[in-house]
Design goal:
The protein has about 300 residues and is an alpha/beta fold. Helices cover about 50% and strands about 15% of the residues. The protein binds zinc ion (ZN). This is Reverse transcriptase zinc-binding domain.
């Protein structure tokens, strides 16, 4: 409002009508407009928060299947009984897990006693792994009538998380290259270093091997491509196998093996039978009649 050029008496002014006078009509119009603007701001704010939440979710180091399941759960895209009924399928609506209430995403989140027990066992409020496990268990129970207690399911979730973290560490080994150097040998042994590259999309790997004598002089080197390699750990153990086979073929009988795959080196040094996916290759390596003096991690 522009200021008057000469002094005037103050008066009450209603800014939402051109006349400056209040009317019920202009008051109603003002209220409706304000509510609309607030809801617009609110919706925009929620949309920004949601976008940020799911951006964070996709960037987390979780298995893709867990992230996708959680995304479906959060968007109510799962075929819960409530959703199936909404699409006119003739189904029982009762929650299979707690036998109390209509099975829906809202029920799982707020009212399901089984879900509450699961989160209590895990000492969590809400997260992706339990939601994923809950839905898998729900499907097993509905389709195969397999029952499990909330405590057992919580133990399964914890074991799965531990296993995934272990594999993830193996697939992204931490290398300390600051002080990396080749340590010369004493005596007539040879040292064989191995490493592997892994192409996850084509499931291929390549082994790189170099054998050196006690003075560090290269005696032999080799690269070997492999098909059907399922993960980085398998790539490393195949490289290790090629390394020991090459040293044996060349007639070296006293060998020190060195690689950066801690898990593979640990398995070679272990007296316990390895029953993992790579167990057969570990056994192959251990059966080669070459005296492996030492299997060491070269992260030093
Ligand atoms: Zn329930």
């Amino acid at each position: 409002m522009p200021l008057p050029s000469s002094p005037q008496l103050d008066y009450v002014y209603w800014r939402y009508d051109r006349s400056g006078y209040y009317s019920v009509r202009s008051g109603y119009k003002y209220l409706i407009q304000t509510m609309y603007e607030h809801s617009e701001d609110h919706n925009q704010h929620n949309a920004d928060k949601e976008r940020s939440f799911f951006c964070n979710l996709w960037s987390l180091s979780l298995p893709l299947k867990v992230k996708i399941m959680f995304w479906k759960f959060a968007h109510n895209f799962l075929p819960t009984f409530a959703n199936l009924s909404y699409r006119r399928l003739n189904v029982e609506l009762e929650c299979t897990l707690c036998r109390s209430g209509v099975e829906s995403v809202e029920h799982f989140m707020c009212y399901c006693s089984f879900t509450n027990q699961l989160f209590t066992e895990l000492d969590l409020r809400f997260s992706a792994y339990p939601v994923w496990a809950l839905w898998i268990y729900r499907n097993n129970k509905v389709h195969e009538n397999k029952s499990q207690s909330a405590k057992d399911l919580a133990l399964y979730v914890l074991a799965f998380v531990q296993e995934y973290d272990g594999i993830h560490k193996v697939s992204s080994p931490q290398r300390n290259t600051d002080n990396a150097c080749w340590i010369p040998l004493i005596g007539d042994s040879v040292k064989v270093n191995f490493d592997a590259s892994f192409n996850s999309s084509e499931k291929r790997s390549t082994s790189g091997i170099i054998i050196r004598d006690s003075s560090g002089l290269p005696m032999a080197a080799s690269t070997v491509p492999h098909l059907f390699t399922i993960d980085p750990e398998m790539a490393e153990v195949k490289a290790c196998e090629q390394a020991i086979l090459l040293t044996h073929d060349l007639g070296f009988r006293k060998v020190i093996i060195e690689g950066d795959a801690l898990n593979v080196i640990s398995k070679l040094n272990s007296l316990v039978e390895d029953r993992s996916d790579i167990g057969a290759i570990v056994k192959n390596i251990q059966d080669v009649p070459t005296y492996v003096e030492e299997a060491v991690e070269d992260d030093r």
